[in-house]
């Protein structure tokens, strides 16, 4: 009798683990779509524009090496985690160009709906964790979120500088727009 109970408990446990793994791998396949989300910023060779996944990877590496320039001590892994997942919502919502004032009007609504769906694909605990990271990035209140925002603004600005402002010229972006977009940078890093 005891063996039957233990075997049933084991089967229930194993089914739960398999379901969780199925959800995780379904999520991994879904987020592969981030590689297809084009951005407006050119790579340093000015021949093609980056995608969201390249942008996230670049900011993660930059955070590893620039974290000492944060105004406050930050949890680097937490900050990198935030940077790696914050644009996943663009799989559904699309990329809203930093200087697209019309697109910004619906950005919050589109991204919130996307966050509900995309992070909802995960097992509940992990989905909540990623949703909370995304929300933290959006709110810009923690030292990690403030520094993540610095990276999110600095990385495309650096690439635009490397291409002599190619994307800015194409979109007729003016200096006052660039300065306005980066006005909160000192909150995360006065030096950067």
Please give a structural write-up.
Helices cover 68% and strands 4% of the residues. It is mainly α and 192 residues long. The chain has a two-stranded antiparallel ribbon. Helix 3 packs across helix 7.
Walk me through the topology:
Layout: H1 2-31, E1 38-42, E2 49-51, H2 52-66, H3 76-85, H4 90-93, H5 101-119, H6 124-139, H7 143-162, H8 166-170, H9 175-181, H10 185-188
Antiparallel strand pairs: 1-2
Helix pairs in contact: 2-3, 2-7, 3-6, 3-7, 5-6, 6-7
Report the sheet-strand fraction.
under 5%
- Tell how many strands the DSSP assignment holds: 2
Q: What structural class results from the helix and strand content? A: mainly alpha
Write out the strand line-up for the largest beta sheet, numbering strands in chain order.
Answer: 1-2
Write down the overall geometry. globular
Uncertain segments are none
Rg computed from alpha carbons, rounded to a whole number of angstroms:
20 Å
H/E series: HEEHHHHHHHHH
What is the straight-line distance between the termini?
67 Å
Number of helices: 10
Sheet of most strands: 2 strands, antiparallel
What is the helical fraction, as a range of percent? 55-70%
> Could you tell me the mean pLDDT?
94
Key terms:
192 residues; 4% strand; 2 strands; 10 helices; single chain; mainly alpha
The gist of it:
The chain has 192 residues and is mostly helical. Helices cover 68% and strands 4% of the residues. The protein has helices at 2-31, 52-66, 76-85, 90-93, 101-119, 124-139, 143-162, 166-170, 175-181, 185-188; strands at 38-42, 49-51.
């Amino acid at each position: 009798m005891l063996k039957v109970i233990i075997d049933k408990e084991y089967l229930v446990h194993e089914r739960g683990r398999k379901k969780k793994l199925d959800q995780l791998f379904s999520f991994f396949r879904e987020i592969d779509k981030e590689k297809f989300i084009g951005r407006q910023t050119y790579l340093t060779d000015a021949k093609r524009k980056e995608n969201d996944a390249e942008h996230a990877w670049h900011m993660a590496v930059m955070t590893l090496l620039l974290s000492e320039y944060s105004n406050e001590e930050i949890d680097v892994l937490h900050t990198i985690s935030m940077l790696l997942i914050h644009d996943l919502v663009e799989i559904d919502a699309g990329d809203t160009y930093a200087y697209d004032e019309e697109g910004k009007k619906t950005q919050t609504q589109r991204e919130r709906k996307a966050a509900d769906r995309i992070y909802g694909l995960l097992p509940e605990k992990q989905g909540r964790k990623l949703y909370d990271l995304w929300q933290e990035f959006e709110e810009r209140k923690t030292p990690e979120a403030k520094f993540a925002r610095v990276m999110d603004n600095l990385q495309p600005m650096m690439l635009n500088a490397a291409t002599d402002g190619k994307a800015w010229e194409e979109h007729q972006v003016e200096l006052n727009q660039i300065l306005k977009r980066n006005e909160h940078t000192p909150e995360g890093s006065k030096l950067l």
